[in-house]
Amino acid sequence: MPAVEAHPGARTDAGLRDEADRLRTLVLETHQRAGAGHLGSALSIVEILAVVLGRFFRWRGDGEPAWAGDRFVLSKGHGALGLYAALARAGRIPPERLAEFGSNGAVLEPHPNEAAEPELHASTGSLGQGISIGVGLALGSRLRGAADRTWVVIGDGEANEGQVWEAARSAAALNLSHLVVVLDDNGMQQDGPTGGILPVDDLAGAWAAMGWRTAEADGHDCDALIRAIEELLALPDPAPRLLRARTVKGRGVEYLEGRTESHYPPPLSAEDLALARYLAQTRRAHG
Amino acid sequence: MAETGYGEILLHAGRAHPQVLVLDAGLATSMRTHRFAAEFPERYFNLGIAEQNAVGVAGGLARRGFVPLLHTFSNFVARRAHDQLALSVAWPGCAVGVVAGSCGVFDGRNGPSHMATDDLAAVSALPGMWVAEPGDLRQTEALLDRLVRLGGPGYLRLRRFGAPADLLGEDLPPGGTVLVRARDDARCTLVACGSMLEEVLHAHALLKERGIPADVVHAAVLKPLDPAPILASAARTGLLVTVENHVAAGGWGDAVARHAGPRGIPHLRLALPDAYVPAGDPAWQLAWCGLDAGRVAARAAAAAERLHPPERIHA
Asked: What predicted TM-score, i.e. pTM, was given to this entire model?
């Protein structure tokens, strides 16, 4: 079982970079032990998870009503392993629960199941649905008079789904300024490059045309993600916010990066895992 | 109540339950939500002709502690947004009420695109769903109140036009499964399913004219179905006849058969045919489907006479 170290409470940018590397290692180790899983999709959102959950997210406090607090919706449910590892790193779910990932009947299913694990704020897996739930969560929070945010991570492949566009238009029409969607734009979907299937030249531009405020960043650069999100949150107008994060599917495993095979690869060999861990440690040492 | 009945019922539910929100999916003028919207504009949202998103938004609102009532036509949610209903609402057990307003022959003027004939099969197959279909406006009011109080996902199947005000009177409880006509010498139990209550009461009168006494049980909640009044009546009469405004597969007759079959109770199932029914008004479609009161009475009488020799019936 991989060691889940205490969350460092990372608030400095260097601390977040370090946290992201540890998170990536935990994802790889958990995938290796499980023997299967949607690895590529989880690896492309590691820095997004580290930055959003570690820097910006407001957890519901003890004594607050059940509806209170920020919500995190992984609309691209295939990246679940990344979210689970991040929640374990943050101390929200016990490490032994993460260790069961991939086993029969495990609470942490291949796609998030909120009925089994309340720390998951929306069950997803059928693409396009989580963002609509996020619209409802953001609207509901506003009706409560709260300033809580709803964070939704969607994939560029997921944006094939018509429901994503229905949701985007409704969020703009409802002026949901506390809805933040992070587009994990890794350029890939299960069957290959997104550009070869349903290409959109300027995905962020399309969202802007629907009334969203948009920003872009290197999705593996924690500092850039922080800056872009801070800029988005600082905008005074009531529109919902989209961050297009340029990412690499399978990031951190050289032979998987940007490849179709990264979607559901076999477990890493001991040598590959050691190499990935070494590279992360090296980066920490020299970062 | 008059033609505006549902609008008034919804308005009253909104006044009684401040946690209720009303969502439309671009069919507000058909669903008659305007009175709620006028009185509670801050609790009303028209999300446009985009049902899949609307179901998910309702799920999100429920997760923040509200009780959203999503209004659209039955097909556009039970068929088009079935996956969303299953995964964004039913699986996590969200308190979302779907008010589905175009059931079977009562919205057949627009043809198979609008006329929901298989919606009950789709929604009642989802674990955790509560599913109901009232027979009149009094039941609609009672069942909407139950929908709001459920604390989980529910589906209320309405007819858009001409729902009768009160077919059973104040003495009978609205909703659930209720014995509404009973005779000690009854030789047939007519089970009026949901919106078929009015037509079945006509059939009951026709059977009486033919000298065939019958019970009538009305069932308004399909899931979970309370079979006790149906089985108690059938124990006396020896014959069940279910009459439903839905195809045979996965509808009311199936639900009753799950209880009647193991008990060996003879069961005649009258349902919409396995066909795309041509567009037409309710009376024309009922006749086309063999579900008008005259045909229901004739088919029930034939079954009763096969089971019970005429001399016994008329003795």
From this structure: 0.95
